[in-house]
Write a structure and sequence with these properties.
It is found in: Membrane. This protein has about 575 residues and is an alpha+beta fold. Helices cover about 25% and strands about 30% of the residues. Among the domains are: about 90 residues, no CATH class; about 100 residues, TATA-Binding Protein, CATH 3.30.310; about 50 residues; about 130 residues, no CATH class. The chain contains 11 helices and 29 strands. Strands 2-3-27-28-1-29 form a 6-stranded antiparallel beta sheet. Helix 7 packs antiparallel against helix 9. The two termini are about 35 Å apart. The relative contact order is 0.15. The N terminus and C terminus are likely disordered.
């Protein structure tokens, strides 16, 4: 049976001229299935309400799953992930700065063990961070997949049918156009353009005198790219989570300090610290070596850093060599491995002889810069082979790139970060360095537990620690026949961070997709336009139209006006309904 045609949506200022009679409403608000009045309790008849049997285990599981896979919970988990990642910004992490973690244990022995038990030095591998990460992943998957399935069904489906009443829409319009409904529909169809998906249909109704009449309809919609972009954005977030986790499983990362002129090999044995993922395989470690040829730094007159450049020579697997400059945030790349410049400083070269005149030590020792912008640096020199290992020597002190002195001639600091007048001030220790007891030590910190500081007697008879002051090329005899120490020269050192992470490229891909999806979801309008065309009594066509958008769309009225503007004013009289 044909559907009755209710022309309420066609009401114009001259309904009588159209000869259309509204279809009567069906009696009995309950519809065909009604079987009598409802009870006050909301059910049919007077039966007692059903007892509450409880959700049960399956009910609670379903409720929990629905909550977990809601977009609201996904957003909360995303916020929670950012919150639980914050400790990684306040405490040093073993994966990025293991030396700082060791220093934290030395500086805060009372709290370091407690913080370590809470995984605050390894935040991103902690159980609680992993739990939030996995919950966010599950929540996004459970939220996105059903929406994607519904969206794919909507893409294959035709636009919705024309509503029977247009008066409930805020954006609507009416017009009379010269021509048959079919002619007017072709004009409107062309005005909608290729951006709209359209569904052309017809509705049958009757006039007041019982004459059958057909109304042509157009259902048009656009903006599926908005939901597509929204889904692409969230799927890209899932992709970022996946590739980030994958990268953490297969990556490796090593830190190494290289003195000018020295070489390091991409091998775990050559790194000062080395960290790998759970799926790390040695075959993924590309064999190459890097030599630090030069290091140049540039500072302003007020000691502000302007540029750091490490000139290196890279020797690859096949023996091919190439030179490159490594700058901060401009790494050297070889396949999936990146070599970052993370630090620099001075490595004074010393030669130490023992009491018998034998050379016990000769080499460059990195001195680590302090917080002083003028590169005041701390360092140690360990000489375990002095005196046959029986009376080992140790030196700790500071390096001043541009030494300044007080009125009495005592060196008090550095005036500039460049080595304009470099000097070292060293304390001398003798005893057991503790290098042979099998306990790992910080090579940048001298353990004086089993050592004695070498003292000297001043002119006034008081004893005080021996301080050795040296400039490049100078040599000093140590007291008590301990030998000599010579400050040979002052090369630079550079700290490199070698990272292998094949997920970085995919992170860029998914980040780009997320950005594109976000732009589409924010700026592509989702609009629907419905048009009904009825032949008028005078041979013209009554046009009624309505438009609907998802969310606030200030351009919706203009869009409807643009479509109706095809009804040329020379051939049509246009009027708008009161809103």
């Amino acid at each position: 049976m044909a559907t009755r045609y209710e022309p309420e949506g066609l009401a114009t200022t001259d309904d009588a001229a159209d000869g259309i009679e509204p279809a009567p409403k069906r009696a009995g608000g309950g519809g065909a299935g009604s079987s009598g009045p409802r009870s006050p309790s909301g059910g049919r008849g007077s039966g007692a309400p059903r007892g509450d049997a409880g959700l049960g285990v399956r009910g609670w599981l379903r409720w929990t799953w629905r909550q977990l896979t809601s977009m609201r919970v996904a957003l909360l988990l995303l916020l929670l992930l950012a919150v639980v990642a914050l400790p990684g910004a306040f405490f040093p992490q073993r994966t990025s700065d293991p030396n700082a973690v060791q220093q934290y244990f030395l500086d805060h022995p009372d709290t370091a063990d407690l913080l370590d038990s809470l995984h605050l030095f390894d935040v991103y591998a902690s159980p609680w961070f992993s739990a939030v990460y996995l919950l966010l992943f599950v929540s996004l998957i459970g939220c996105i997949l059903p929406r994607t399935w519904v969206h794919l069904k909507n893409l294959r489906a035709e636009p919705s049918r024309v509503p029977s009443r247009f008066t409930r829409f805020d954006v609507r319009g009416q017009a009379r156009a010269v021509g048959t409904p079919e002619q007017v529909r072709r004009s409107l169809d062309a005005a909608l353009g290729r951006r709209y998906r359209r569904r052309l249909a017809s509705e049958r109704g009757r006039t007041a005198d019982g004459e059958a009449r057909t109304a042509l309809t157009i259902s048009a919609e656009r903006g599926f790219g908005r939901e597509t972009g929204n889904l692409v954005f969230h799927l890209a977030l899932v992709g970022l989570l996946v590739v980030t986790a994958w990268g953490q499983l297969v990556h490796y990362r090593g830190q190494v300090v290289v003195v000018q002129g020295d070489t390091f090999v991409n091998s775990p044995l050559d790194f000062d610290s080395f960290d790998t993922g759970s799926w790390y395989g040695a075959d993924a470690q590309e064999p190459f070596r890097v030599r630090l040829d030069s290091f140049e730094s540039e500072f302003t007159v007020d000691s502000q850093a302007r540029d750091f450049v490490a000139g290196v020579t890279l020797t690859e697997t096949d023996g091919a060599t190439r030179t490159a400059d490594v700058r901060v945030n401009h790494p050297l790349e070889t396949n999936d491995t990146r070599i970052y410049l993370t630090g620099n400083g001075f490595a004074p070269r010393f030669t130490v002889t023992d009491g018998s005149g034998e050379v016990a030590f000769s080499g460059a020792v990195p001195f680590l810069p302090t917080a002083d912008p003028n590169y005041t640096s701390n360092g140690v020199v360990m000489v375990p082979d002095a005196n046959g290992g029986e009376r080992q020597l140790g030196f700790n002190g500071v390096l001043l790139p541009t030494a300044t002195a007080d009125e009495e001639g005592n060196l008090i600091g550095s005036a500039y970060p460049q080595p304009l007048d470099p000097a070292v001030v060293l304390n001398v220790w003798v005893g057991d360095l503790g290098l042979d007891n099998g306990v790992p030590q910080n090579l940048y910190l001298l353990d004086t537990t089993n050592m004695e500081q070498v003292l000297t007697t001043a002119e006034d008879g008081t004893e005080g620690p021996v301080q050795v002051v040296l400039r490049p090329g100078e040599s000093v005899d140590l007291p008590d026949g301990l030998g000599t120490i010579t400050f040979e020269d002052l090369p630079r050192f550079a700290a490199f961070d070698v990272r292998y992470d094949p997920s970085i490229v995919w992170m860029g891909v998914f980040a780009g997709l997320a950005f594109a999806g976000l732009v589409a979801s924010l700026f592509l309008p989702r609009r629907r336009i419905w048009v009904r065309l009825v032949a008028g009594a005078d041979g013209d066509t009554v046009v009624s139209a309505a438009a609907l958008a998802r969310g606030d769309d200030p351009g919706l009225q203009r869009e409807l006006d643009r479509v109706l503007a095809v009804l040329d004013s020379d051939q049509a009289a246009t009027s708008k309904e009161d809103r």
